[in-house]
Amino acid sequence: MRRIPKKDTPELLRKAQELRAHATLAETALLERLSNRQLQGLKFRFQHILLGYILDFYCPEYRIAIELDGHEHNAGDDALRDRAFLSWGVLTLRFPNTKDVDEIVLAIRAVVRSRQIEFVQNAASAIADLKAIGRGADWYASRRLELERQKLAYMNRVAAPNPAQLSLEMPSSVKKDVEIVTEAASLVVRKGLHVAEPPKRRA
Fold it and tell me: What distance in Å separates the CA atoms of residue 105 and residue 167, rounded to the nearest whole number?
């Protein structure tokens, strides 16, 4: 996947530090629930700079931004900002800062489940595209079978009677394969590159 530019400046860095030091009650309550990888082992960054904006919370693994909005927010400006992030694959979740923190956490869990399945589906689709144009078909076909198996496993878990009790975190090896095949497919489609060998994993 494309690396998202931060576009940070000294002024933005200072502002982010100030926001962390003077967090609102709503932000503090949610931070207590998301810090130290409490939610499905995922890392959430607090007052994180991305695309020249400061996000209240950000999950880099699944590109989820979380904003706790007060009365001072401008809906038009927020919509433009959210579309800018969406063009980079970042989904923005907005909640009023008066909303119960338990309800917010439940909503985040549901979105994480959805993103996990979406990532696997996108990878399987990317592999199918590569196979159709004959780019490294054998290697990608073998991974497609595994990713399809993982996709079915996640779907079955979501449909289980008590999905909240099941661990839905995608194994790191599968997430890495998702990144590799999606990036490779993008390069092939955009630049017509020949993928004779699997791309190397990033360190």
Answer: 15
Residue 40: what pLDDT? Answer: 87
Residue pair 130/80 in contact by the 8 Å Cβ criterion: no
Number of domains comprising the chain: 2
pLDDT along the chain (203 residues), means of 10: 87 96 96 94 95 95 92 80 92 94 93 83 67 57 65 59 44 56 53 43 47
- The enclosing domain of 46 has a CATH number of 3.40.960.10
- Distance, in Å, from the CA atom of 147 to the CA atom of 130, rounded to the nearest integer, reads 15
Which residues, 6+ apart, have CB-to-CB distance to 152 below 8 Å?
none
Distance of alpha carbon 51 from alpha carbon 88, whole angstroms = 10
Distance CA 52, CA 9 (A): 8
Structure confidence at residue 107 (pLDDT): 93
Rounded distance between C-alpha atoms, residue 169 and residue 139, angstroms: 25
pLDDT of residue 196: 40
- Could you tell me if 122 and 175 lie in one domain? yes
- The tokens of 130 are what? 């590569």
- Asked whether residue 23 is domain-assigned, the answer is yes
Whether residue 89 is contained in a domain is answered as yes
Residues 135, 91 share a domain: no
Domain boundaries, position 55? 10-99
Instruction: Check if the beta carbon of residue 42 is closer than 8 Å to that of residue 112.
Output: yes
